Amino acid sequence: MAADPLPTSHALPSPFSTSTTPLTLIAQGAEALLYHTTFLSPTTPCALKIRPAKPWRHPTLDKRLTRQRILAEARVLVKCLREGVAVPAVLGLDWETGWMAMQWIDGGSVKEAVRGRDVSVNGADGVLKGLMRRIGRAVGGLHAAGVVHGDLTTSNMMLRPIAGETADRLRGEIVLIDFGLATQTVQEEDRAVDLYVLERAFGSTHPREEGTFPEVLEGYREVFKGAKGTLRRLEEVRMRGRKKSMVG
Amino acid sequence: MPIAIGLEGSANKLGVGIILHPASTPPSPHDSVHSSSSAHTKPTSPPVHILSNIRHTFVSPPGTGFLPKDTAAHHRRWVVRLVKQAMKQANVRIEDIDCVCFTKGPGMGAPLNAVAIAARTIAQLWDLPLIGVNHCVGHIEMGRAITGADNPVVLYVSGGNTQVIAYSAQRYRIFGEALDIAVGNCLDRFARVLNISNDPAPGYNIEQLAKNGKCLLELPYAVKGMDVSFSGILARVEEMGRKLPQPGTPEPAEPWVDPDTGATITSADICFTLQETVFAMLVEITERAMAHVGASQVLIVGGVGCNERLQDMMGLMARERGGSVYATDERFCIDNGIMIAHAGLLAWGKGFKTSLEDSGTTQRFRTDEVLIDWRD
């Protein structure tokens, strides 16, 4: 997501086109634009995900895909909330114009927190391990709810500050975000690949902290009953990698 | 000024090309132009001289594909004639040539072997070094040389391969690929159901038919992250093809019509639907790779890359990202000998040689296995 020029051609959908709160672009992927703004009342902060129409796609196909994807993402989020997994709540959506408003999550990403952690403090390793274990529990809870995320990285995990707790940046509640590639599945293989993607992403983003990754799997085991099978499958996935080794 | 001859025969095209690289260093002028001055990126002289580039295609009858045995026989029958013709057209002597390049893989075993035998024979007769070339790397390097695209995300789409590739640290890394069959294979096999001619290529004839298509039918859409899958689409579209009234049979009592307009569904509509769906998938994974690496240029190579609808769609996407699309015409998109000669000569410039003992071919040869030591 490097130096992408801002597309100016996309008009904002209603009600955001008439909102008095400014929209701040916070991320742009291939699929969607993510803004920080408010929803309906100026005191309700929200994350607004807009999926602009793709002019190269046939309009019928474009509408179908936008609708399917927004609905799939919203359904996954709603399912997670119902099962007690910490994810942003869905505030509203419109598949015709292609937007979904979600509850704004305070705090920073796990990536920033791990990158910026103070290693000199006494017990820093213990705090990091605690965080890793909480990540494992969050992912375990997600999988127990029958959802795989599809793109687990430390940028897609927020640390929401807990009221009354010390302001250590590695504390806080793990909230998973960006369910654009999520699917509802009960396949062991899908869950194992989900963990494998996280393991690889964590290793390349935080090479110094890579040794603490087993804590994630420990936390995963604590909360998810099917962990044993998934972790066995993970061994296999590690052996072959996510990609096949041939071209057909 | 080094000259190479390249022999390609990994599928149903047999190609022979002779190339000359004007300056001994650097082999790819675009790299040097880019580093010396970013203001003007167009070199004044053409980067490479194509002395000859000829091809002979094995065309199987409508409704059938090309079988390895018949294709290898075709290559054996034509390879001597093509080499002679290429030498004559290039107007070079045997002494002028520096190396013999051939496709090591990936591809179909029997045709690859037939051409490798020819390359080994020439190399020994003329006492020249052999250079085994990865077919995919050949496509990418030729595309870069012809279009001048400096560091693009590459979409390589053909009958045997579907890959989204970006260069990083002397490797062409595969970001996304087809998990089952290649996109060109999907098009070719659909053409067989409708008995569409394989001359000049089934994909070309589908493209022409699709121009008259209007109704977009519903097909599966299978994108998973940066990967794609086409076998489900093929199964569905084959079903649709068989649903059309066959010539010589009476019209069905209830014709298959578009629910919106009431117009009868034709083969053109199915071709249109197939193209719109699979190309949208390809553009989507390419865009995701571009967003991931922060690139704005995209280069399309491989036989399916000739398709103008695919080029147009990719152009719209690239323009929205503030970039542009680079594509070549059928001389370079479709398998050819010149790309093998070009990529081989780049490797030769770095001292690479394939010994006679290692000059076997391989059906499986991933793009990211090759060390690209001629790029920074």
TrEMBL record, chain A:
- UniProt subcellular location: Chromosome, Telomere; Cytoplasm; Nucleus
Q: SMART domains in the record, alphabetically? A: S_TKc
A GO molecular function held by the record: protein serine/threonine kinase activity
Any one GO biological process: tRNA threonylcarbamoyladenosine metabolic process
Keywords from the UniProt entry? Activator, ATP-binding, Chromosome, Cytoplasm, Hydrolase, Kinase, Nucleotide-binding, Nucleus, Phosphoprotein, Serine/threonine-protein kinase, Telomere, Transcription, Transcription regulation, Transferase, tRNA processing
What region holds the Protein kinase domain? 20-248
Q: Does the keyword Transcription apply?
A: yes
InterPro entries in UniProt:
Bud32, Kinase-like_dom_sf, Prot_kinase_dom, Tyr_kinase_AS
Which EC number(s) are documented for this chain?
A: 2.7.11.1
- Name the chemical reaction catalysed here: L-seryl-[protein] + ATP = O-phospho-L-seryl-[protein] + ADP + H(+); L-threonyl-[protein] + ATP = O-phospho-L-threonyl-[protein] + ADP + H(+)
User: Nucleus: present as a keyword of the record?
Assistant: yes
Q: Which GO terms describe its cellular component?
A: chromosome, telomeric region; cytosol; EKC/KEOPS complex; nucleus
The record, for PROSITE patterns, names: PROTEIN_KINASE_DOM (PS50011), PROTEIN_KINASE_TYR (PS00109)
How it assembles, according to the record, is: Component of the EKC/KEOPS complex composed of at least BUD32, CGI121, GON7, KAE1 and PCC1; the whole complex dimerizes.
Give the family this protein belongs to, as stated in its UniProt record: Belongs to the protein kinase superfamily. BUD32 family.
Q: What is the recorded name of this protein? A: EKC/KEOPS complex subunit BUD32
Q: Could you tell me which species this protein originates from?
A: Cryoendolithus antarcticus
TrEMBL record, chain B:
Q: Where does substrate bind?
A: Y156, V157, S158, G159, G160, D188, G203, E207, N307
| InterPro entries tied to this protein | ATPase_NBD, Gcp-like_dom, KAE1/TsaD, Kae1_archaea_euk, Peptidase_M22_CS
Its predominant location is: cytoplasm
Per the database record, which ranges form the Gcp-like domain?
Answer: 52-341
Q: How is the cofactor bound?
A: Binds 1 divalent metal cation per subunit.
The subcellular location is:
Cytoplasm; Nucleus
Q: Which GO terms describe its cellular component?
A: cytoplasm; EKC/KEOPS complex; nucleus
The reaction(s) this protein catalyses? L-threonylcarbamoyladenylate + adenosine(37) in tRNA = N(6)-L-threonylcarbamoyladenosine(37) in tRNA + AMP + H(+)
Question: What domain of life is recorded for the organism?
Answer: Eukaryota
- Record HAMAP family: Kae1
Q: Which NCBIfam families match?
A: gcp_kae1
Q: In its UniProt entry, what is this protein called?
A: N(6)-L-threonylcarbamoyladenine synthase
Organism expressing this protein natively: Cryoendolithus antarcticus
Give the source lineage, highest ranks first: Eukaryota, Fungi, Dikarya, Ascomycota, Pezizomycotina
